[in-house]
Amino acid sequence: MAAVRSMSRLLSQRSINQVLRRGYADEMNFTFAAGNKVFYNASTVKQVDVPSFSGAFGILPKHVPTLAVLKPGVVTVFENDGAVKKIFVSSGTVTINDDSSVQIIAEEAAALEELDSAAAKDTLNKAMSQLSSATSDKEKAEATIAVEVAEAIVKAIE
Amino acid sequence: MLGRAGNFAFLFAQNVSSIQPQHRGMATLKSISLRLKSVKNIQKITQSMKMVSAAKYARAERDLAQARPVGSGAKIFYEQAEVKPLEATPEKLYVAITSDRGLCGAVHTNVVRKLRILLEQPGAEHIKVVCVGDKSKAILQRKYGNNIILSVNEVGRLPPTFQDAARLATAILQSGYEFSYGEIIYNRFKSVVSYSTSNIPIYSLPTVQAAPKLSIYDSLDDEIIQSYLEFSLSALLYYAMKENACSEQSSRMTAMDNASKNAGEMIDKLTLTFNRTRQAVITRELIEIISGASAL
């Protein structure tokens, strides 16, 4: 293993992938793209935990193929080197295909450390007041979503 | 459009011919210098437009690098599940991605041309069109106005955002048009000098449900697929709008560069004619003076 690693350091990025691919047959091809930023593009990771409307679940390599709709919350990515990255998503989709590739497409996403808790609480309060002053059904629905997202952000930062 | 331009040209020609016979030498000299000035002004405009679109292009390209995984990620499911258009429901939806602004080469025309070929084939009554940007609407409205169900403007002034795409997707879904298969037609950016007009397939819920490989996907119900499709439609629209915006800016840059070059050539030619004419006027005046003096 150490030999593979020291060797792979000498090789280009592409050959690293090839070496690893030979080593682990059951790896995950992970793409995480949001409207504002791309977090992972076809990179390999160990595990991904996602919040979805049908319940939060973890994705390991060779997960059964499925589709899910993301709900506001934190996506946790366990990278191959052991690093854990937490990313907040507002909404989006998860696709798990039978070739073990996983795509998360989010509307907007940000790493947790980039979020400001004061600003989040402020947004929550604004959304609350918007909800209480909403009159039509559409406005109410929109405000409810805003409250949900703001609550999820505040909860994620804590 | 052409007819109107023709009328103007006719009026203009009339005006010129009524002035010209009176003071021939001076008027020509003056008209050349006027023309020279206007060409120079046009060159200034095209040059600054080029600079503006170069700056916008740099930003669009940076954005595009971020948007590409969104588009390719959203497309993978359709490919993996081998979704195919249903034969039983021929209703199709085409989304033409253009913008409000012209002077950018054939970017908009290429999208519209692709659509027009489809609309001229038999079975066009099953095709509905969504025009994104005023340009596609302006070209298609006269002949294919019945096929347009929705048009959106105020596209192209600012870079497209995910909100724009989401709003457009909502409008398409709320239009009440039941399609089984659709395409987003846009210009895929390749490099500063080239783009290709491409399409992304989009599908509706019944079509996806009939896909042969959908059964391998676990624990799906209609609601999840419906929400999934709605979100992926906006992701695909976002991606297509980003690609198209980048192609448009790069193409406008090239077009304005060419226009500036052509204006430069015209300026050279006009300057030469201007100098020649001025010389001719001086020579004629000299001849008049000399021959007048020698006659005394």
The top level CATH class name of the largest domain in chain A: Mainly Beta
Percent helix of chain A = 25-40%
CATH class group of the domain at 66-253 in chain B? Alpha Beta
Largest sheet data of chain B: 5 strands, mixed
Give the name of the CATH architecture of the domain at 66-253 in chain B: 3-Layer(aba) Sandwich
Q: How does CATH name the architecture of the largest domain in chain A?
A: Sandwich
Give the neighbour order of strands across the main sheet of chain B: 3-2-1-4-5
Give the number of DSSP strands of chain A: 9
Low-confidence region ranges of chain B: 1-23
CATH superfamily grouping of the domain at 66-253 in chain B = ATP synthase, F1 complex, gamma subunit
Number of self-contained structural domains of chain A: 2
Keywords (chain B): ATP synthesis, CF(1), Hydrogen ion transport, Ion transport, Membrane, Mitochondrion, Mitochondrion inner membrane, Transport
Family (chain B): Belongs to the ATPase gamma chain family.
Subunit structure (chain B): F-type ATPases have 2 components, CF(1) - the catalytic core - and CF(0) - the membrane proton channel. CF(1) and CF(0) have multiple subunits.
Subcellular location (chain B): Mitochondrion inner membrane
State the main characteristics.
heterodimer; A: about 160 residues; alpha+beta; ATP Synthase, domain 1; Single alpha-helices involved in coiled-coils or other helix-helix interfaces; 2 domains; nine-stranded mixed beta sheet; 4 helices; B: about 300 residues; alpha/beta; Pyruvate Kinase, Chain: A, domain 1; five-stranded mixed beta sheet; about 65% helix
Q: What does this molecule look like?
A:
Chain A: It is found in: Mitochondrion inner membrane. Chain A: Residues 115-156 form the F1F0-ATP synthase delta subunit C-terminal domain. Chain A: It comes from Aquatica leii. Chain A: Belongs to the ATPase epsilon chain family. Chain A: Pfam families: ATP-synt_DE_N (PF02823), ATPD_C_metazoa (PF21335). Chain A is an alpha+beta fold. Chain A folds into 2 domains: 24-113, Sandwich (ATP Synthase, domain 1); 116-157, Single alpha-helices involved in coiled-coils or other helix-helix interfaces (Up-down Bundle). Chain A is 37% helix and 35% strand. Chain A contains 4 helices and 9 strands. In chain A, strands 1, 2, 3, 4, 5, 6, 7, 8 and 9 form a 9-stranded mixed sheet that branches. In chain A, helix 3 packs antiparallel against helix 4 (137-157). The longest helix of chain A is centred in the last third of the chain and has 21 residues, at 137-157. The model of chain A is unreliable at 18-25 (pLDDT under 50). Chain B has 296 residues and is of the alpha/beta class. Chain B has a domain at 66-253: Pyruvate Kinase, Chain: A, domain 1 (3-Layer(aba) Sandwich), CATH 3.40.1380. Chain B has helices spanning 2-19, 24-80, 107-120, 134-144, 162-174, 205-209, 222-295, and strands at residues 92-97, 127-132, 148-152, 181-191, 194-203. A 5-stranded mixed sheet of chain B has the order 3-2-1-4-5, sandwiched between helices. In chain B, strand 1, helix 3 and strand 2 (127-132) form a beta-alpha-beta unit. Chain B is elongated, with a radius of gyration of 28 Å. Chain B starts with a helix and ends with a helix. At the A-B interface, strand 1, strand 2, strand 4, strand 7 and strand 8 of A face helix 2 and helix 7 of B.
